[in-house]
Design goal:
- By secondary structure, the protein is an alpha/beta fold.
- The protein has one domain: Vaccinia Virus protein VP39 (Rossmann fold, 3-Layer(aba) Sandwich).
- Helices cover about 30% and strands about 25% of the residues.
- The chain is built from 6 helices and 9 strands, in the order H-H-E-E-H-E-H-E-H-E-E-H-E-E-E.
- The chain has helices spanning about 5-20, 30-35, 70-80, 95-100, 115-125, 165-170, and strands spanning about 60, 65, 85-90, 105-110, 135, 150-155, 170-180, 185-195, 200-210.
- Strand 6 (about 150-155), helix 6 (about 165-170) and strand 7 (about 170-180) form a beta-alpha-beta unit.
- It is globular, with a radius of gyration of 16 Å.
- It starts with a helix and ends in a 9-residue tail after the last strand.
- The structure holds S-adenosyl-L-homocysteine (SAH).
- S-adenosyl-L-homocysteine binds next to strand 2, helix 4 and strand 4.
Length: about 220
């Protein structure tokens, strides 16, 4: 079996183990198709390339990590977005999550606080032809107000509380997926729904381990 097919079957096995927590026994066709299509090896440093299709996180430099493929697929699936959606991502990192999302939705706006990573990710995404992703280097706590409101928002760094600007920038009927908890400690993956009338409700999905959402200044 190729490394990439092995990764797909590892993701499917983990979905089966966690199905009661995540409320689904499979991810959508478009999400799994995107995971199959995006070459993860292009998003990891050369020294990590032989582990690119392991179902685990990997270092990407600057003390940051590319998330585990199962978590990337889970968060993409939890957004419940379609090909017309415009999505905001906080924490571009390597650009891999943005690339996966870009195969499923119309446009991805992604922000990264570390300039080196923002530049590298922009380059990687451009070299692979993912032209429906826009990346910029800012503190994602404040979102990216110019393109709001978004159909969905995904945060790939752990926050101690949900940043209010991200809820403001979500469309009524939209969804935010975010890890919330202690930096380097226990975190819950939270799904936040904003109803058509603007009420906000939250549910916790499962325990996760993300690098912290930092603040500029
Ligand atoms: N989605 C990434 C993984 C991200 S790791 C991928 O697919 O590779 C989390 C990233 O969030 C790190 O790159 C970190 O620098 C970034 N980050 C942390 N705090 C941030 C903030 N306030 N605004 C934007 N990015 C932030």
């Amino acid at each position: 079996m190729s490394d990439q097919l092995q990764m797909i079957s590892d993701i499917e096995r983990e979905v089966a183990y966690t199905r009661h927590m995540i409320g689904r026994s499979a991810f959508s066709g478009p999400v799994m198709q995107a995971i199959r299509e995006v070459p993860r090896e292009a998003f990891v440093p050369a020294a990590e390339r032989r582990f690119a299709y392991d179902n685990g996180p990997l270092p990407i430099g600057c003390g940051q990590t590319i998330s585990q493929p199962y978590i990337v697929a889970l968060m993409t699936d939890l957004l419940e977005v379609d090909e017309g959606a415009v999505v905001l991502e906080i924490g571009t990192g390597s650009g891999y999550q943005a690339a996966v999302l870009s195969r499923v939705v119309k446009h991805v706006y992604t922000v990264e606080i570390i300039e080196t990573l923002a530049m590298q990710a922009t380059e990687t995404l451009a070299s692979l032809g993912y032209d429906n992703v826009s990346c910029r280097c800012v503190d994602g706590y404040f979102g990216w107000p110019e393109h709001a409101p978004y159909d969905a928002v995904i945060v790939t760094a752990a926050a101690q509380e949900i940043p209010p600007p991200l809820i403001e920038q979500l469309k009524p009927g939209g969804r935010l997926v975010i890890p919330v908890g202690h930096p380097y400690g226990y975190q819950d993956l939270i799904v936040v729904d904003k109803s058509r009338s603007g009420e906000v409700s939250e549910k916790s999905i499962l325990g996760v381990a993300f690098v912290p959402l930092t603040r500029s200044g």
